[in-house]
Inverse folding.
């Protein structure tokens, strides 16, 4: 049986006080298994960003636990939190969040420098990632000299270089055109299939979601539906149709997703 | 509602830009200090002694004030511009919500005025306090305590301060708000314009760096070699080359940092830190160059002014406190009056007369003498070729009708000065020169000649020149000043001037006990106030002292004032600009936290950036200032101080070092502000619920 990389247990996050309390997360429970490509979909305001912020430790949950490889990240002190953020989880943002005064190479190796990792890792892993993500030409360029797709692939290399247990992707195709979005998803898919990377992705895009092995649908702070791709008999196209059908059946429409 | 908003926004502006607000308060203080100069105790005291010089200094005040207004305008304009840029999104939102541009203008104006009023309210009492302190300290240092310190507040100065301050603020605001008014809402709404990293081929910045260095070296060379002082054209050329070099140096400096960056270790945030610094230098190289030049001006003004004031403070060969002229009996009678009795001691006379020679029309009615300096001139010819030798040769051409001083009178001065009396024979003479006319090197040159066993001839008789040159002033101040004179025995003096009227100066000093009890200045002032009531004709040492104090106070005031303005503007411009730029990079700092950096490491990175940012600006100014100060000492040193150029140079460097301490304190304040900003920025993002 596959090992549980991330376990979210009874996660609640409430904002405001009794009279005007908003329950952004209302008892979320799910696991992310090793090597899984898990997608999370839901309406705006359903709590997706709050969930990612809690996993990224940018927000403290009101209740519940998040376990990474069995360790409760809520109990981490500052030192372990810092180590967790840049090295045990990799984060891929919608708008890339590259530091635009650093070259591609400097952006990618920044987490290693921050965590004082030996330069050997950089020497070993960087060429592999760079070749796989096809970003060798832009390594010495600044973000302003890169295309959107190149930026996101550089950001992906940055998320992956410390060899994190899980990569969290927050709408990674949101700022890309269709072609670049497809190219990125293929790369992420390859990373998942060929290299066994565990990925947790939040998306609005049914096309992007069709690369996931499993999708959780969120509503009002909890999970209300789940879809699994039937490997190997179900094609990606069929899975995509099923996602669209699920969205329509469950009250979704193009403008809410 | 709008009043609350104005109050809140003003408060936020002050909190976020405390350094700028502090500089506005400092500007108010500086305005008041310069405008209230005439009402300050020390100036009023100096006015009683050196009214002309003080008048000349005070006539400079409006010029200094206008110059300060001009400089402060740029400070307010640039700092205001960065502030408004940071808030442009907020203005866009107001306009999107339907606020009329006129109302937005009114709100911004009210915010600005409210902060200006607060700066004025904080600055005025502080400036009154500081001017009182400055007055008190100067009085205490100079021993003017007897005057009694009168608190002084100049309403005129306060009103002019307020008028100038508001004038500058309103003008800058009108220009800046004009820029805002002309912008489309969409461009105002653009997310805090994080300026794009400019990409240039590596050749041009490297060439600019090289050209900048070469131009600066050329300017340093002409400055230190003295060529800059040849004429106004070479000076203008040197200043232009130096200024251009500084601008080019900073515009290419980013590239220099690149190669430095490649060699640095890449651990932790060092790559990020130096990339940030490089970006600041790339984007703000012009402001850095301007700030560096202003700091250079501050260093030069401060170091030169204070050093000259300090070094020239020496006692001008002061021996006697009062010199009287007139009848001996009259003088003795007045000094024996009960109020004055015992206060003055050692009344003695010095007789002085001019030895008229044939052909000197001034002495047409007097006995004509012959005076020969052939041997002396020949001895001077044997000196090594120096500037002093030329000066001496030149002076000897006019050494035709010398002043002659009686030995007994001069020995009385020697006694008062606590020195050995001079032993001269009737066929001997000693040379005298007033300290005003000689510096150490000139004095040495004359003594070298004296030691050559040379002779002077008067009326055909040879007089051996004594080996020592005497320079102790034989009157209290400047009743008589002699470039080159002769001291002869009383017998010779009587023989030379038999039957002629000679000048007689009666000298006296304040009793030692009184000096010990009250200090020299107060003792002399007390006696002076009593003497004023008599009908005696006299001069006092106070006049010389007043002149000296005036030079010191004036040089210190003007140079300190200018240095403070230059330094304040330079520092505020670069620090406000840096902190605003840092704010624009808020997302980067948040990203670092997301990548696992801790807040301490991020703050350390900010500190390093600030230290380097200032070090590059101040360091360039400091290096240039060594040549600037050196050049000033080579070019426009006050007469009499040439021989002390070395001492002056080191004093000036010490003063520049003192400014370095001020700069260090300032950098510490900016680092603290930077850390505070960063901690505010990297706090977890506002909680969202989508």
């Amino acid at each position: 049986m596959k090992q549980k990389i991330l376990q979210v247990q009874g996660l609640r996050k409430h904002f405001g006080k009794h009279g005007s309390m908003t329950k952004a997360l209302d008892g979320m429970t799910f696991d992310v298994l090793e090597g899984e490509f898990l997608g999370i979909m839901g309406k705006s305001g359903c709590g997706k960003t709050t969930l990612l912020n809690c996993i990224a430790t940018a927000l403290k949950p009101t209740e519940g636990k998040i376990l990474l490889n069995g360790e409760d990240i809520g109990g981490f002190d500052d030192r372990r939190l810092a180590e967790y953020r840049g090295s045990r989880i990799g984060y891929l943002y919608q708008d890339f969040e590259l530091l635009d005064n650093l070259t591609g190479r400097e952006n990618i190796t920044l987490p290693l420098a921050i965590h004082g990792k030996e330069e050997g890792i950089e020497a070993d892993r960087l060429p592999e990632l760079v070749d796989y993500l096809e970003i060798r030409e832009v390594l010495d360029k600044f973000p302003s000299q890169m295309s959107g797709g190149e930026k996101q692939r550089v950001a992906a290399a940055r998320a992956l270089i410390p060899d994190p247990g899980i990569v969290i992707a927050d709408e990674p195709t949101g700022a890309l055109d269709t072609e670049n979005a497809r190219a990125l998803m293929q790369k992420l898919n390859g990373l998942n299939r060929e290299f066994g990377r565990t990925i947790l992705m939040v998306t609005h895009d049914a096309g992007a979601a069709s690369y996931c092995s499993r999708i959780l649908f969120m509503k009002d702070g909890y999970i209300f539906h789940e879809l699994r791709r039937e490997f190997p008999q179900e094609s990606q196209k069929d899975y995509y149709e099923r996602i669209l059908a699920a969205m329509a059946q469950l009250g979704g429409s193009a403008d809410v997703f | 509602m709008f009043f609350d908003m104005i109050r809140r926004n003003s408060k936020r502006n002050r909190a976020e830009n405390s350094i700028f607000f502090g500089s506005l308060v400092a500007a108010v203080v500086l305005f008041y200090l310069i405008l209230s100069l005439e009402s300050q105790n020390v100036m009023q005291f100096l006015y009683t002694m050196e009214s002309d010089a003080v008048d000349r200094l005070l006539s400079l005040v409006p010029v200094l004030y206008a110059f300060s207004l001009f400089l402060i305008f740029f400070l307010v304009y640039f700092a205001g511009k960065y502030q408004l840029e940071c808030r442009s999104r907020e203005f866009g939102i107001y306009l999107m919500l339907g606020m009329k541009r006129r109302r937005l203008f009114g709100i911004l104006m009210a915010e600005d005025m409210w902060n200006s009023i607060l700066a004025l309210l904080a600055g005025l009492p502080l400036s009154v306090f500081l001017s009182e302190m400055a007055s008190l300290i100067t009085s205490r240092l100079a021993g003017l305590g007897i005057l009694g310190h009168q608190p002084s507040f100049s309403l005129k100065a306060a009103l002019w301060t307020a008028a100038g301050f508001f004038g500058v603020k309103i003008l800058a605001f009108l220009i800046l708000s004009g820029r805002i008014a002309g912008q489309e809402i969409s461009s105002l709404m653009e997310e805090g314009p994080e300026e794009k990293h400019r990409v240039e081929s590596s050749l041009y910045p490297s060439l600019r760096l090289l050209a900048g260095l070469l131009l600066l070296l050329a300017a340093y060379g002409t400055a230190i070699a003295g060529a800059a002082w040849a004429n106004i054209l070479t000076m203008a050329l040197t200043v232009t080359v130096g200024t251009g070099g500084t601008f080019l140096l900073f515009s290419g400096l980013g590239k220099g940092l690149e190669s430095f960056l490649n060699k640095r270790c890449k651990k932790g945030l060092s790559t990020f830190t130096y990339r940030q610094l490089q970006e600041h230098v790339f984007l703000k190289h012009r402001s850095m160059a301007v700030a560096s030049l202003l700091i250079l001006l501050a260093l030069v003004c401060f170091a030169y002014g204070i050093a000259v004031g300090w070094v020239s403070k020496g006692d001008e060969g002061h021996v006697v406190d009062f010199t009287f002229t007139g009848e001996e009996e009259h003088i003795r009678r007045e000094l024996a009056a009960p109020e004055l009795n015992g206060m003055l001691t050692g009344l003695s006379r010095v007789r002085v007369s001019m030895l008229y020679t044939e052909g000197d029309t001034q002495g047409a009615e007097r006995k004509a003498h012959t005076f020969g300096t052939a041997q002396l001139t020949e001895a001077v010819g044997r000196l090594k070729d120096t500037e002093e030798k030329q000066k001496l040769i030149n002076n000897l051409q006019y050494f035709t009708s010398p002043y002659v001083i009686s030995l007994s009178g001069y020995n009385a001065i020697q006694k008062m000065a606590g020195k050995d009396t001079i032993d001269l024979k009737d066929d001997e003479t000693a040379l005298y020169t007033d300290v005003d006319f000689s510096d150490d090197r000139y004095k040495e040159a004359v003594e070298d000649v004296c030691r050559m066993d040379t002779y002077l001839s008067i009326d055909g008789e040879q007089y051996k020149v004594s080996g020592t040159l005497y320079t102790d002033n034989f009157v209290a101040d400047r009743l008589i000043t002699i470039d080159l004179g002769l001291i002869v025995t009383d017998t010779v003096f009587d023989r030379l001037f038999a039957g002629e009227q000679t000048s007689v100066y009666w000298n006296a000093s304040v009793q030692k006990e009184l000096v010990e009890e009250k200090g020299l200045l107060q003792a002399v002032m007390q006696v002076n106030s009593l003497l004023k009531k008599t009908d005696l004709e006299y001069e006092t040492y106070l006049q010389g002292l007043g002149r000296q104090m005036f030079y010191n106070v004036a040089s210190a005031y003007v140079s300190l004032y200018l240095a403070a303005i230059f330094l304040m503007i330079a520092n505020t411009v670069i620090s406000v600009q840096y902190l605003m730029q840092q704010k624009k990079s808020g997302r980067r700092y948040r990203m670092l936290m997301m990548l696992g950096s801790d807040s301490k490491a991020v703050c350390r990175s900010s500190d390093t950036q600030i230290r380097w940012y200032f070090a590059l600006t101040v360091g360039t100014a400091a290096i240039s200032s060594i040549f600037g100060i050196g050049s000033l000492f080579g070019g426009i040193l006050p007469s009499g101080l040439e021989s002390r150029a070395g001492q002056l140079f080191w004093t000036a460097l010490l003063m520049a070092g003192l400014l370095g301490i001020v700069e260090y304190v300032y950098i510490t304040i900016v680092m603290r502000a930077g850390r505070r900003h960063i901690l505010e920025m990297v706090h977890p993002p506002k909680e969202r619920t989508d």
